[in-house]
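Hi everyone,

Forwarding the result from last night's run.
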Amino acid sequence: MMAADVLSLISQGSVMSTYETLWAGLGLDLKRHDELLELLGQFYTGLYLSQPNRPAGMGYFDFVISEVHGLRVQELQEHKARGGKVVGTFCLYVPEELILAAGGVCVGLCAGTDFPAADAEAILPRNICPLIKSAVGFKLARLCPYVESCDLVVGETTCDGKKKTWEIFGQHVPMHVMELPQMAAGRQDGLWLGQVRDFKGRMETLAGRTITEDDIARGIRLVNAKRRALARLYALRQNANVPISGKDALLISQIAFYDDIERYTAKVNELCDELVARVTRGEGVLLGAKRLLITGTPMAIPNWKLHHILEENGGVVVCEESCTGTRYFTNTVDESAKGMDAQLEAIAERYVHIPCACFSPNTERLDNVVRYAREWQADGVIDYTLAFCHCYNVEHELLRQRLQAEGIPLLHIETDYSMGDMGQLTTRARAFMETLA
């Protein structure tokens, strides 16, 4: 069955009924959950399936979205029935390698819609980051089969909003929190390595087994292979004839957080093979459009509105310097590390250098944005910030100063998950692109 056909069935409720027993067993609010899936199906069809000249390889990723709360959730339950564990995360700093080493499956729990915002506001401030509010709202409203499948949820201290939210979220789920050093100078003081060691111990307790060096080596290989596949995809977007839309590339990055790792890696590489052929033939999407780099806060499913606005109004997104972009796959863990201590040190070293705005100073991010703008030949940069994300909102001034000195045009977009500002954002995007040479 084609992905478009499956999406049509979602809108009609046929796929909903297929998994109703599964969802009921997880305790979901079936009525509201059906409403959510219907909206998602309609939204996805309008934004994604209407794109012209899409690569054939996107059919797999369309199918994944069509089964976003179906087949993959069923796979998680089958994994649990075999004795495996499911671990939910909200951040790149949680080492997926150790989850895999313990025989677990890692799933991302960040959410990109305001559908359950009112539920979250019953216990959280209204003026809190939309990503936090969405994640908590999905749990309280019983709308997310992924969080309901988790044997453990891992948080991290990347911002004050999250740090305090985990105290509340931990009243509803089994919770483990990893503490990050906040000053860049503290990255080597042993705190983070200790946190990685503690997480390994927590995973061993959860799985009821000892993690071996071979287990960790396998986890490192699997995650590195996924990173290399994504790096390959992004490199292909550097071509003058961009072979894939930014919207599709974003979707692929988002799916990386919960799809089966080996299947996903294979499908991304298959798609890249197709894109290589497109580049060779001189084919591309949105030819002649302004090349744009997006930096800033992450974009969780189904937060696709900024890419849609930009690519419907004369732009093509060629790169994302974000947690749902380059930060996710840049740098790999050293596979030559021998011995448990060396492996854990290699994992800690790779993760602690992800350039999040929670670090101070965070000059690496500024350097990366400038470098990526050159390498991806961006005509301009969009600094995308979620409302009430103080780390990135404050850091914008430092980014502005740096890009001004480098002569790189910059537009700052601050928004949330609502659709109410679509008109305003469209006007600003059009005006910005008109200024680009």
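The radius of gyration is 21 Å.

Cheers,
N.
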